[in-house]
Amino acid sequence: MVLGIGVDLIEKARFADWLSKPGVQSRFAAAELTFAEKSGRAEEALAAAFAAKEAFYKAAAHLLDDSRGIFWQAELWRDASGRPEIHLPESLRAELSARGVNDVLVSLTHDREQVCCVILLVCDNQASGARRTLTELTPPGFTPLHLGADDLVEITAELAACWLPPRLRCAYKGTFGHVLVVGGSSNYPGAPQMTALAALKAGAGLVTLAVPESIAPPVAEVISQQLAARNGYLDMGSFPVLQALFPGKIPVIGMGLSRAAETVELAAGLAVLPGAKVIDADGLYALAAAGIMPTQAVLTPHSGEMARLLGITPAEVENDRLIAVRQAAARFNAVVVLKGHRTLVAAPDGRCYVNSSGNPGMATGGSGDVLAGIIGAWLAQGIDLFRAAAFGVYLHGLAGDLAAQELTEYAMSATDIISFLPAAYKQLLVVRNSIFSAGNVAKEGNGRAENKKRLENDRVCCAGSTSLD
Q1: CA 281/CA 302 separation, integer angstroms
Q2: Most buried residue, 39, 75, 266, 335, by CB count within 10 Å?
Q3: What are 419-461's pLDDT values in tens digits?
Q4: Positive or negative, the Cα torsion across 363, 364, 365, 366?
Q5: Are 181 and 192 in contact (CB under 8 A)?
Q6: How many degrees, rounded to 5, is the angle at CA 319 between CA 317 and CA 320?
Q7: Positive or negative, the Cα torsion across 309, 314, 326, 375?
Q8: Which NCBIfam families does this one have (predicted)?
Q9: For 205, what's the count of Cα atoms within 13 Å in the CB-facing half-sphere?
Q10: CA-closest candidate to residue 334, choices 367, 306, 362, 370
Q11: Which residues in 69-198 belong to E strands, given as ranges?
Q12: Binding site membership for AMP: which residues?
């Protein structure tokens, strides 16, 4: 639920005139001035900071007993990756939290002449008495500031729809990333192929399939990287080739790879190479067997694989899935997806999503391979590990739900999930369009739908436009 929305649009020329007046710059926070100086576009950066203050005031003033002074208390900071976030004094954070505000979402965009900022104040929903589930509305480009909500968030259609970024009109295949699928053996030749097809259907621009040469399938849409393999499975002899392939790609490792000792050594070596990656199936077995810590990874275990990773039994995992997934995320410093009914997605800091999509018809061989490919596709498109995993889980489940409606839960296969990915995207786009309809923004934004329209147009325009975030 949105408790407040503020939109502010600043003309750069008029702001530059105001900024030149004596003493004006001293009113900005040190972090804002430092970022402006380092950015090389000081006037533009300070215009963004001013727009953020104005938008926050519009969103929050009606919730506070005394709104005087809050304009300059809201500061526009940047995280380590350069994304914008709103920094508030502790007293103001506490006052907003007491009024049900759990997140402050901020988005910035600009073109040659104007800077636009949108601020949303979001509250949580009460459910089943003591348990609270935060319904987080995060439109494309928005970054949240958590103010004390529960760390277990349900992935709903509305939330997943808001994670869909726009596709730029000037995009090309490289815009949407390159997935590298590493897997396959003589016993499981089809697993990596399903992962590759799922990554393509989920939106990756390019997919390379690195498998033993004896099982390399002729897939027209996929780049084939045939690897020498003794006895039908990969070993350390393939490591130099794969290491050279890793840069600029999102590896998805483990599907049908085998558990031979030589393959375990290979998978363990790949898991610690730099860069974001997805590790599934036999790749997870290798982590447990070798006792290593992966780097920048999304791990996708089912209960049995989770038990092996944690050194406990599957029954103990199922007894408290939430504790298990959080322990694994903290232990491996990774985003962990615990597959099953109401799949859980946990970050190392304890935050956790619980999925609301999916059905028993998806309990079929290859379903996990499809999920790994979907998550890989979203990592390739530049989405962060936690959100890519959460979105991938929901999209995978939604495609399964649509397949079940058409085929029943009794007659589904993993390839059916891939086939229904377009329908799943179409459904999410309908939801997103309803959320961002001009009527909704006009109603919640004091009739300023034109600002919203300009914001959306600027975000998808390539020529002469650069996003501040």
Answers
A1: 9
A2: 335
A3: 999 999 999 999 888 776 633 443 334 433 443 443 344 333 3
A4: negative
A5: yes
A6: 75
A7: positive
A8: pantethn_trn, yjeF_cterm
A9: 16
A10: 306
A11: 75-78, 84-87, 101-110, 114-123, 125-126, 132-133, 143-146, 152-155, 178-182
A12: 339-343, 368
Return the bridge partners of 118, or none: 7, 107
The binding site for (6S)-NADPHX consists of 191, 256, 302, 369
Contact 252, 277 (CB under 8 A): yes
Report the binding-site residues.
Answer: 191, 256, 302, 339-343, 368-369
Residue-wise pLDDT tens digits, 100-155: 888 888 888 877 788 888 888 887 543 232 222 223 333 444 444 444 334 678 89
Enter the tokens of residue 192: 């990596």
Place of tokens 């390019």: 206
Instruction: Tell me how far apart the terminal alpha carbons of the chain are, to the nearest angstrom.
Output: 25
* CA–CA distance, 376 with 185 (Å, rounded to integer): 20
Note the pLDDT of residue 145.
45
Q: How far apart are CA 155 and CA 392, in angstroms?
A: 11
Q: Is residue 113 exposed (0-12), middle (13-18) or buried (19+ Cβ within 10 Å)? A: exposed
In contact, 366 and 374? CB cutoff 8 Å = no
pLDDT in tens, 278-335: 999 999 999 999 999 999 999 999 999 999 999 999 999 999 999 999 999 999 999 9
Q: Which residue has the tokens 């615990």?
A: 338
Strand order across the 335-338 sheet: 152-155, 352-355, 344-346, 335-338, 297-299, 277-279, 250-253, 178-182, 206-212, 223-227
CA distance 453 to 442: 11
> Both tokens of residue 97?
């939290």
